[in-house]
Amino acid sequence: MTPRSFRATLLSGLLCATLAHAQDAPDGKQISIQGANGAPACITCHGAHGEGNPAAGFPQLAGIGARYLAEQLEAMANGSRVSPIMAATAKALSPAQQDAVARYYAGLPSPLNTDRLAATAMHPVKPADTGAWLATRGAWDKNVPACNQCHGPGGIGVGENFPSLAGQPAAYIAGQLRAWQQGQRPPGPLGLMPAVATRLTDAEIDAVSAYYAGLPAAADLVATQSPANQGKKP
Ligand code: HEC
Ligand code: HEC
Description:
By secondary structure, the chain is an all-alpha fold. Helices cover 54% and strands 0% of the residues. The longest helix has 24 residues, at 202-225. The radius of gyration is 22 Å and the shape is globular. The N and C termini lie far apart (70 Å). Mean pLDDT is 90; it is low at 13-20. The structure holds heme C (HEC) (2 copies). Residues 59, 68, 134, 144-145, 147, 149-151, 161-163, 165, 173, 176-177, 188-189, 192-193, 196, 208 line the site of one heme C.
């Protein structure tokens, strides 16, 4: 073999290996649109842009941390996070497919207006307003910090580990808090959420879930009604 043809063989070999690798790597977007291995397309429930479906109780996925989402898929697949609706879907995906689809959703723009939501953390709150009070002040008489301390002002989420809460369906938020109370969801980082959830009453869970579910609409209302914005488009 001449040095030249050797180089050509080497090069085409490398090229084939790269192409084969690209074909092997699962495509998260494709999984979201078409499903995979018999698992249904994610978009049918989680929306075309991962925005979720509040009326049906399907959570938003767009813009949430990739590692968090992948861990949830794994937990729903192995049953440590009990989810009758997601178990079979999560199980059908290989670990590489779970990672790929988690990365795809993490990379989609969040539908949340983070500036408006963060501004809600400054709104005046009365203690009788249980949901808003828990979210912004906590319940220190029983060692519950404000949810916003970890989930960000207005529940917009913080980094990889603290998912956003704003705009998630109320039934979904309440369901997760009760799952931690009943040991039906893994404790997650440092067991922070079981410690919070087990200290909340049923009424507090319902109130704080409704508060975060309605927060994007409330934030929009305040922003468009504030005198500084009169005459401006929303
Ligand atoms: C039939 C509707 C449906 C389909 C299809 C579906 N999901 Fe879900 N998904 C849900 C529901 C409902 C939940 C909330 C979990 C629960 O209530 O048990 C959820 C939860 C999740 C979560 C956890 C979110 C969080 O914030 O913790 C992830 C991640 C997820 N789904 C990813 C996917 C992916 C990826 C696909 C496609 C391969 C998919 N889902 C397909 C309904 C669906
Ligand atoms: C000390 C920090 C901390 C505080 C305070 C906190 N959380 Fe969390 N929360 C977390 C972490 C960490 C996770 C991710 C858990 C995991 O990875 O499984 C989480 C996850 C959640 C989830 C799941 C989101 C999803 O997409 O499935 C809900 C719902 C939630 N928290 C609600 C609340 C509420 C309501 C409060 C206030 C009453 C609160 N949290 C206070 C740290 C905190």
